[in-house]
Structures are given as structure tokens and as C-alpha cells.
What does this fold into?
Amino acid sequence: MERVKIFDATLYGGGQSPGASLNIEERLEIARMLEQMGVDIIQAGFPISSPRDYRAVRRTADQIRESVVCASARAREEDIDVAAAVLKGAARPRIQIGLGVSDSYVVGKLKTTREAALEMGVQSVRYARRFVDDVQYYAADACRADLDYLYRVLEAVIEAGASTVNIPDAVGFCVPSEWGALVRGIRENVPNIEQATICVHCHNDLGMATANTLEALLNGARQAECAVNGVGERTGNARLEEIVMTLHARCEVLGLSTGVNTRLIHPVSRLVSHLTGLSIQANKAIVGDKAFTYTSGMYQDGVLRGRTEAEVLDPTDIGILEAENRVPLLTGREGLRRRLAELGFGLDDDEFEQVYRRFRDVAKKKPDLEIRDLEGIVSGETTVFVTETYELEEVQVTCGTSALPTAAVRMQGPEEEPVWATSYGNGPIDAAYKAIDSIVEVPNQLLEYSVEALTEGVDALAKVTVRIEGEVPVGDAAQDGDARVEKRVFLGRGADTDTIVASAKAYVFALNRLLAARRAGRRRQDVTEELRRAVEEMHARYGVARPGDFMGWSALRDEELM
It folds into this structure.
């Protein structure tokens, strides 16, 4: 049985996925769960892209000890410097270097020749090997490259020290037969390919990311890039749960296995869904709510008698807690803490106390809490993931068929005393949001509002998700009073048995994230200085191939990362 490595791109893909929004604390929450699940490599991000990504990759590298932590870079010494510096505290660091291999990329984008691009890639790998032993080379746009040139590039970068070569179909264009043939051709025509691991990165634009990945594995690839719930740019990446469980369920046929603890797949999937605000299709394979629901009389009869051949998977294999496994109030603190750990939430003492108080409040309204209720409670607690500037203490609404919708809210902010505000609206939620705006006074635009019942019944906990757009400074405010700004989208979540209350909580959650980002944007110069010192220390230890210093963030130069 051959082992397949899982290269997880959830943290990076979560930032690329439309509508998703993960702050540093949420990234760390997912990273810790991925490590516990046994993921081999965690793609932590692109540290040179922004101070925010730099801080996120640095903290992931400092805290994750078992999984490899990978930082991405372009084939530029400046990018590699930053990636190496940010991985200084990693137990198992990896740098991924990306450079295109198609003519449209080499000639059209880089404005250079094939030979010059090949040499650029080789020198970048050699430079990265000065700092880390584990270098992965990302042959961007490989699916449209001239095959002979692709083979030459891979041979050269492996000779230069790349231990993994990543072959992407980032446009999701190939069909399985084409993709399998490409990987098979690499194995047959790159003389030193046995010295490196072949990784594949497939997008799902035509719905074939999982099929293409599996076909590549059958043709010799031994590392699969994927993401929990398939999060990623456009239609997303190959889905981790589908790849891992296919290899698990059909290991005897495929002859392949992973080191993933499959019993954590469902908890991790729910965690990522809650934190990104991206719902899972009810009948989605493996992790959908209806994935193990049977309506056919024949199947139901078989399931009642025990597992049958009609069941491809056992729900317990992916960590689905039994339906009767509810969360009784009398469980107490330790029982609740254990249940939270099963769901993937690693909370510190202060965060746990916040959740425990909220748990007791909800349990008074709904005695028979279910697992999904608990998920909603945790994901809707702002203080677990964001430092609160404002806290919603009370909301009251008046509305009806002939009444003007009116809302009154009380919020605790930076002031010593709570502040009340009242407003009218075209509905109770609109009125509540206008009242909140009159207190917080941060310009924003509401882009999305959605509500979901977490369980069945009239006493179901309502989970509300909102997305707002606001401006965040990106210039060095310490030096420039007229700092540049960029528009960013912020996700807010709230859960309560009262939909109005859940809606208000979600909106305040999003506003607190916006305020936190505005404060972080003003600290940009501090992060730049921190990075400059880290790069100088690294050069003092390992030397440098060129003179110069950190030139600034890619976002300020308006350059594409890949």
C-alpha cells in the first residue's frame, strides 16, 4: 500500500474563495485541526502579499509542530527572503516557488524567453535551498505548456534541489484522461523524477477536480493538493474529504492510502463552513447533511438490520456524532469542553467561559440542544475570534402589519457606560442595523444577508450570516496622514433562537472585524519594520546572493502573485 501525502490549501484557498473571510485567529483554529487530523503539509499563505498574510503565516509556522508549514513565493529572491524569514520558527518549513511554464505565461506575462525563465526557476530553487531543505516547485499553467519544455524545467529544478514538483490545472480545463496522460508523461520523460514527489493541483471549474486528482494519483503522483469543502478561487479546489475518503473506501482497489484521521473529516468540514460562512450543499458527497439519509424502502430496511453493501461509507468513519448524542445542560464544563474538542474548536480558558455562558443562556430557551446548535453558538461568538470593540447587550423591536418597524439597541463600546440608540426601518432587521450604525458610525455597505435554521422545529437555533464592505487603510499611516485605503469584505455570524437577535449579533460581529482591520492597517509600518529585521537576521546567518533590502509589499506594487 503506497502512501499519498495530503497538501492542504484551505488556509490559502479560504482567502481566495469568493465571499470567504478568515482572520488570523480563525486560520489558526483551522490549522490546529488540520494538524490534529494528520494533514501532511499545510499551505499557510503568501507572506509577501500583505502584512496580514505575513502575520498569519508567521503565527501558523510558530504554532504548528507536526505538519509541514509551507509558504508560497514567486521565483524572486525578495519573495524567497520573506518566505524564509516568516518560516524561521517552523518545526518543518517548506517554501513553494511558483513560475509559469506555458508560452502565454513566459512570453506574454514575464516578457522573456523559455531559456531565461528556466534559469530563473533554477536559481530560485538554489537560493531557497540556502534557507530550507524542503522546496516545492509550482509549474504554473502546466496544462497548457509545451511538454518537452515542461520536462526540461522539471528535470532542471529537481537537479537544483526541489524535492516536490507541483503540476497545476489552475483553470480546471483538463479531463481525467488528459490529466492522467500528463502525469504519466512526466514520470516517463523526466530522468530524475524519482528524486522528487509529484503533486497535482486541480480546480473544479468543470466539476472534475476530484476525478482529475485521483487519475493523477493512479498515474504516479503521490501528493494531492486539496482543500476542506473545496474552498478556493472561483469554483474551488479539489475537495479533501472526497479524495481522502475515496482512497479510504477503495484502498484495496487503488492500492493507495493517506495518514489522515478520517474521523475528524466531518468536524473539520463543519468548522471550515462556519468560519468561512460558506454553506455545504445538503446532498454533497461525504459531508452533506443528507449524505447518509435513505428514503428508499429497500435501503432503509437494510440499514435497520445493520450495515449493508448499499452503504459505501460508515458515518462514524468521518466522525459524524450519532443523532441521539445531544448536549445536555447537566454535562457540565468538562463535558462541554470535550464535545467542543470533538467539533474541532480548541478554545483557551477565557474563550471557553464565554461560550459556556452563552451555552447556558441558549439551553434555558431550548433544553434539548443538539450538536449543530453548539456549532452555531461557538461560531457566533465574536470574542472567540475577534477582539470586540462593541458588544451587543440588548435589542428590542416593535413591528407588525400596521406598525412602523422600530428597533432599540444597547451596546457597550469604548465608552464607560453602555449607549442606547433607536431607529426606524423598512423591517425590524433594517431598523436594528440602522440603530447599530448610529452608535458605531463606521461607513459600510451590506452586501449579503442570509439566515439558516440549524435544526428542525420551531425552537431551532437561527444562524445568520452577513457580509459587509468597508474601507481599510493600506498605506503607512504613521508617515502619511492621507493613507491609501482599499475596500474589503468582512463576514459576520450570529446564532440565537430569536432571528432578530441573531441578525444583530451577526452585524456587530462584522463591524468588529472591520474595526479590527482598520486598526491593523494603521500598524502596517510596524509589521514592515518587523519583517525588515527578520530578513536582516536571516541574511546575517545564511548570507545573501544580492545586495538590497525588503522593497515593500506586493499589494502596494499592484503585482499579481502568480
Notes: The radius of gyration is 25 Å. Confidence is low (pLDDT under 50) at residues 295-306, 322-326, 555-559. DSSP finds 20 helices and 16 strands in the chain.
